[in-house]
Write a structure and sequence with these properties.
alpha+beta, Chitinase A, domain 3, 7-stranded antiparallel beta sheet
């Protein structure tokens, strides 16, 4: 009995263990469902040649790039931009390691304090009073940075300035190795020079492909496959794409919704017309259009009823009228004359850059005053720009900018008022503070063009809002359609019943943010890649429409399917078949004149055909024909038919000669090839890398 008892006791523990394991499995399964595989690294956003790109690092770089650009980069541009930047950096770093390339602290010191330090460094430590680079102050700051390496502000300084300097220096080393291997022998330079300065003359007959109607030439799937085999690299698909069909149920404003907006604006019109503080009225009463305290030139008054609005007296109002999706009332505030465009030159001394301090305000003000006094005393403006200005974009133009008046609202208000409201020759210092930077501008108005009437108009508007009833009607219709469309076949049948023509979107990639004309459709893209061929979606609201979609095609990475390749290959195959028909049945006779008559054409002449340009005047891009024109064996002789891009050609060479030339600098050619090689090396590294991209799981 004791043995049986022990078995029973152990059996109970075994059963308990099985239950515990089952519970644990259930918990793990739920966790995996919600957060990905529990034991996998679900923060990996991609791999480049086996090296992991972690999401935390990717997001930090994305935030930094966005911050450096004023926080205005759309997600659909930011994510691919940072991804490509990181891929390039990784493949380069892998090459540096293979080649033993490094960048030491001494080299960084040489770059910062050598004969040609980075522009950001010289700007930061140049004394405007003397125009001299203050090396001692620069060294003290770098030493202080080393001591405070754990300070977050120092880390950001390192990321924004020091690390890019190191990266650029390493890239220059690598590119120097690549370009150093390029050598152009004297004979090659002479031949290329001779070829590029050669011209040819030909007589020719063209039998255009339009002689054969398209419907007389059939291109089969087998033809497409054969063409793909002959041109494999042209039909290689590096990443998977998918196709969908979709129907859209409009949820745009109804007539009742429009009436409601009209009523709101009409009721507020009298108060808007008499408001003493228009800016405050527009802000506090919830106008969709903010008040712009500035003038717009007559040429730029593009709104509906512009002529009527321009004719209003000061204080008069007009409206309501429809502009876009709003009902609007306009009130004339003031009128004046203003240039339609201006040219200015300026020097900027920053006190802050994207929230990070650059210079104390008092020092910046003293510096800009010193610059203004120096220019007044005869100092060269461009020399001051190159030495002191914190605006790198205007350095190549000697500090000059040209602005059309349409950009008035995009320029800092203080800057714009000097440029547009002042007079040619004005020189002023203004302080500017905005979300991107703060600082002092020294501005000189160089030129003002096309002075014309300008208007300060206030607008009060209310959007034509979709009512819940309108939205519900569209949503219900979409839900009913989706409920009865569980398969692609049912989708097509129901669309036909409702007399709706499904729209097609092809070549959708996993990381796309938009689908065809559907803006902000990332939700739809993610659904497409979670489903299989033939699946039908639940309704998704995208903009003012409810979308129901079905997956119609999945094109895996590798060689394109016949369906995907057909639009690319079919025109070439059709032309090949037409060429054969034309040669076999249309071209008759021995001379160009006889052949021209047989195809209903005439003998044409092309003189001065350039070897380096693959175009025939009045014909188009025809590299085969250009090549034949320079063939010595066809000079004075007639060729056999040649299938070109636009038709079949028979030509006779009339001579090859050289055009006058200033010669070609061998060093310039070699330097050009070196620059191309250095540039293309990175592209080659990127293309040859083994890249696994998981971004679509996170964004």
């Amino acid at each position: 009995m004791s043995v049986i008892q022990r078995i029973r006791e152990k059996g109970a523990w075994i059963i308990f263990g099985i239950i515990a394991l089952a519970l644990l499995a259930f918990i793990l399964q739920d966790s995996a469902f919600r957060r990905g595989n529990l034991f996998s690294n679900n923060t990996t956003i991609g791999k480049v040649n086996g090296q992991t790109v972690d999401r935390t690092d990717f997001q930090a770089k994305s935030d930094l790039v966005n911050q450096m650009n004023g926080g205005q980069i759309p997600q659909e541009q930011l994510v691919p931009g940072v991804w490509n930047m990181m891929v390039d950096q990784i493949v380069l770093e892998q090459q540096y390691k293979k080649l033993g390339l490094a960048f030491t602290g001494k080299e960084l010191s040489d770059v910062l304090f050598g004969n040609n330090p980075p522009q950001w460094f010289t700007q930061r430590f140049t004394d405007p009073a003397t125009g001299q680079f203050n090396e001692q102050a620069a060294r003290e700051e770098i030493n202080q940075i080393k001591k405070l390496k754990n300070d977050p502000r120092v880390a950001q300084y390192y990321q924004v300035y020091i690390q890019p300097t190191i990266d650029q220096s390493l890239r220059q080393k690598y590119q120097s190795l690549i370009s150093g291997a390029i050598y152009v022998p004297k004979w090659m330079n002479e031949k290329m020079n001779a070829d590029n300065n050669s011209i040819a003359s030909i007589s020719y007959v063209q039998a255009p492909y339009t002689l054969i109607p398209d419907n007389q030439v059939k291109v089969s799937d087998a033809d497409i496959r054969d063409y793909e085999k002959k041109h494999e690299s042209e039909f290689e698909q590096k990443e998977e794409t998918r196709s969908i069909s979709y129907v859209a149920f409009e949820a745009g404003p109804s007539a009742q919704d429009s009436e409601e907006a009209f009523k709101q604006v009409s009721e507020i019109k009298p108060a808007f017309a008499t408001a003493p503080d228009v800016k405050n009225f527009v802000s506090t009463k919830g106008s969709e259009t903010p008040y712009f305290d500035g003038y717009v030139t007559s040429n730029n008054m593009k709104m509906p009823y512009a002529d009527t609005i321009k004719s209003l007296g000061i204080g008069q109002v007009f409206g309501p009228y429809v502009d876009g999706g709003n009902y609007v009332v306009a009130r004339m505030i003031a009128k004046r004359s203003m240039p339609d465009s201006v040219k200015v030159r300026h020097i900027l001394i920053k006190t802050a850059d994207r929230g990070q301090p650059v210079l104390p305000d008092s020092i910046a003000k003293k510096r800009i005053d010193s610059i203004a006094n120096a220019i007044k005393g005869g100092a060269d403006f461009n020399a001051m720009v190159q030495q002191f200005s914190d605006d790198p974009s205007s350095k190549p133009t000697k500090g000059e900018y040209e602005f059309p008046s349409s950009q008035f609202s995009t320029i800092s208000k203080e800057f714009a008022e000097v440029a547009f409201y002042g007079n040619t020759g004005d020189k002023k210092i203004v302080k500017v503070e905005n979300s991107t930077y703060s600082g002092y501008h020294y501005i000189e108005v160089v030129q003002q063009k096309n002075i014309q009437p300008a208007y300060n108009v206030a607008y009060f508007s209310k959007p034509i809002v979709i009512s819940p009833e309108t939205d519900n009607n569209a949503s219900t219709a979409a839900q009913q359609f989706a409920a009865g469309s569980k398969t692609s076949k049912e989708f097509s049948q129901n669309a036909q019943k409702l007399k709706m023509t499904p729209l097609v979107a092809a070549d959708i990639k996993a990381n796309d943010f938009t689908v065809g004309p559907l803006t902000a459709s990332r939700q739809l893209v993610r659904w497409v890649y979670e489903k299989d061929n033939g699946d039908v979606s639940e309704p998704m609201k995208i903009g003012d429409r409810y979308i129901v979609a079905t997956v119609t095609g999945i094109n895996k990475a590798g060689q394109m399917s016949v369906t995907s390749a057909r639009p690319l290959a079919e025109p070439f195959i059709r032309n090949e078949k037409k060429a054969k028909i034309i040669i076999d049945t249309k071209i008759k006779g021995n001379s160009l004149e006889e052949i021209a008559k047989s195809v209903g054409s005439s003998v044409q002449r092309a003189d001065s055909i350039a070897f380096q340009t693959p175009f025939i005047p009045n014909v188009g891009n025809e590299p085969k024909i250009i090549g034949a024109a320079f063939n010595k064996q066809v000079q004075g002789k007639q060729t056999t038919p040649i299938s070109g891009n636009t038709g079949v050609f028979i030509l006779r060479g009339e001579g090859v000669s050289a055009k006058p030339s200033m010669g070609n600098d061998p060093a310039a050619l070699q330097n050009n090839l070196k620059a191309q090689a250095a540039y293309r090396a990175l592209d080659a590294l990127h293309k040859s890398a083994e890249i696994k991209d998981y971004r679509s799981k996170f964004y």
